[in-house]
Design goal:
The protein is an alpha/beta fold. Helices cover 31% and strands 20% of the residues. The protein has one domain: Dehydroquinase, class II (Rossmann fold). 1,3,4-trihydroxy-5-OXO-cyclohexanecarboxylic acid binds next to loops.
Length: 139
């Protein structure tokens, strides 16, 4: 069974309550429950933190043993050299995801420290972005 982790960055714990016009009205926990049922051929886990260093610790912890990381670094996408370096350092493939289409939003969201070292990038499909990323691990 492939081991895949979804890592979510700052403010994504507020999904469902946070700017629903952009991020939707479903909580991540509800979405994740449905995802684990639908894709029960994967060993799926989820980690969320609002703290940059905790995200880096988790990437390092799973980065040499998991089959893949689905990463929504949220606002740190646009600022974090440290998370970008962590992705460079590990062996597990990383799929960068975003719920919103960051290219149709403010210019500061067009910059990503993740993309250059990600295996691929999926954005703009709402929570389905995570599901599409997961499907990329079906062989
Ligand atoms: C986001 C886009 C980021 O620009 C923003 O800071 C987020 C969420 C997304 O999933 O659309 O927090 O990563």
């Amino acid at each position: 069974m492939k081991k895949i982790i979804i890592i979510n960055g700052p403010n994504l714990n507020l999904l469902g309550k946070r700017e629903p016009g952009i991020y939707g009205s479903k909580s991540f926990d509800d979405f994740f429950k449905d995802l684990t049922v639908k894709y029960n051929s994967f060993e799926l886990s989820h980690f969320q933190s609002n703290i940059e260093g905790e995200l880096i610790d988790k990437i390092q912890e799973v980065g040499f043993s998991y089959d893949g990381i689905i990463l929504n670094a949220a606002a740190y996408t646009h600022t974090s050299v440290g998370i970008g370096d962590a992705i460079k350092a590990i062996e597990a493939p990383v799929i960068e995801v975003h719920i919103s289409n960051t290219y149709s939003r403010e210019e500061f969201r067009h910059q990503s420290y993740i993309s250059a070292n990600a295996k691929g990038v999926i954005l703009g499909f709402g929570l389905q972005s995570y599901e599409l990323a997961l499907q990329s691990f079906i062989s």
